[in-house]
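thought: fold this chain, then report.
action: predict
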Amino acid sequence: MVEPSIWKPRVTVAAVCERDGDFLVVSEAINGQQLINQPAGHLEVGESLEQAVIREVLEETAYNFRPQALVGIYRYQPDTKHEQTFLRFTFCGEIIDHHPDRVLDQDIIAVQWMSFEALQACRERHRSPLVLQCILDYQQNPAYPLQVFSRQFS
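observation:
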């Protein structure tokens, strides 16, 4: 007997980091294109969501990040003809320090700080619509305290 397939969304984390009105973004090579995204990536086995976003920011930007709040939780399905779906937990927080000699993930082309206006002007280069939406939510909506996550089951 063949068991029915179980739909499994991919869990990702992202960080909105603001400094002097600019936002930390990465340019990454995806399927031969150079796309812009927040520092972001997949939750790994045994990690809490907070640990995952700290790791992803460090691996992609060489910055140490301290999450301070949850901006939002997003469900994103890039192609409605396929089941692939992402659940993205976006955090905001502060940059603690920088390790400029650290080797970044292999797909990262550049790390930069961009103004909101510059990000709006290059939407066609965003990895997904979530890039701008997460920043808009960060700017316009209240963030949720990290206590929203269970400490016992994190």
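thought: worth noting. The chain has one domain: 10-146.
final: tokens above.
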